[in-house]
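Can anyone check this?
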Amino acid sequence: MRGKRGRPRRRPDVVLADRGYDHDKYRRLVRDLGVNPLIARRGTEHGSGLGTQRWVVERAFAHLHWFRRLRIRWEIRDDIHEAFLTLGCALICWRRLKSFR
């Protein structure tokens, strides 16, 4: 029996978000999907710990912005942009692995 290629998709256990998504509507939408929302509350003190996990994602975007074609999207076609995105990710991984030698 054939299906889609690759690993079967799974729902995440938790969704992390910053104070911009602090609204009951968003929490309800995420809970309806069966995912636990971990959203920082507005008006509370900083230091919830969400930043340490979100920092990984922000760093990945910063690394991709090293490539000018990805910083400003010049390509109209999605497949070409996705190819440059894949190439950028491969170059970032290669540079990281090269520095571990």
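Reply from J.R.: I decoded it. Residues 78-99 form the longest helix (22 residues).
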